[in-house]
Design a protein that fits this description.
Elements: E1 10-15, H1 19-22, H2 27-46, E2 51-56, E3 92-96, H3 107-113, E4 118-124, H4 126-139, E5 143-152, H5 156-170, E6 172-174, H6 176-186
Parallel strand pairs: 1-2, 1-4, 2-3, 4-5, 5-6
């Protein structure tokens, strides 16, 4: 579903734009994501709307067929949020150990305490952290908006699948410019 509206009490959730993730291969994919995410962060702050900055510092327990598992302590600086997000004291920071930002983090309670009814998502990876968080947000009853040009994935097919098949079932999709335009009209 194309982006139609933003609720007056919307929050921005930026997923995993941290040093250890943005330095992985495919930096050319991440550069525009960083630019768009930073623009969203700035706009949400300007409108005095909640900004949630999420990083990942582990993985859920259990076996997987994919590569080495991160231990309890990631390398120094790996979880640090990128400077382009210009983290502020009023931002809410979530450190997750699973794909989704809601699992065992208190994020849903924080958003509900703030009166948030809609979340706008951006970040990496589209098919993992962003999609998982979008699914959880929808299950918690939030309206979900996905800024598709403010996200990227190491796997182009996975990104395309999330954007074209999964996200339209979870909420509305649009560009950063679409979100920024709606912020101006909703909060004029």
């Amino acid at each position: 579903m194309a982006l139609t509206t933003l609720d007056p009490k919307s929050a921005l959730i930026v997923i995993d734009l941290q040093n250890g993730i943005v330095t992985l291969p495919a930096a050319d994919l991440v550069e525009p994501v960083i630019k768009h995410a930073a623009a969203l962060v700035e706009a949400f702050r300007a409108h005095k709307l909640p900004v949630v900055l999420v990083n990942v510092a582990g993985v859920a327990p259990g076996r997987s067929e994919r590569g080495p598992r991160m231990g309890d302590a990631p390398p120094a600086g790996w979880t640090d949020l990128i400077p382009e997000l210009n983290q502020q004291p009023e931002d809410h920071t979530v450190t997750k150990k699973t794909w989704g930002a809601f699992t065992n983090t208190g994020l849903a309670d924080y958003l509900k305490e703030k009166g948030v009814t809609q979340v706008v998502l951006a970040g990496v990876a589209t098919s993992i952290g962003v999609e998982s968080t979008a699914r959880q947000a929808q299950e918690f009853g939030f309206n979900v908006t996905l800024a598709v040009d403010a996200m990227a994935d190491l796997n182009a097919d996975a990104h395309l699948n999330s954007v074209t098949r999964i996200f339209p079932r979870l909420g509305e999709t649009g560009t950063t410019q679409d979100v920024l335009a709606l912020l101006k009209t909703t909060h004029a």
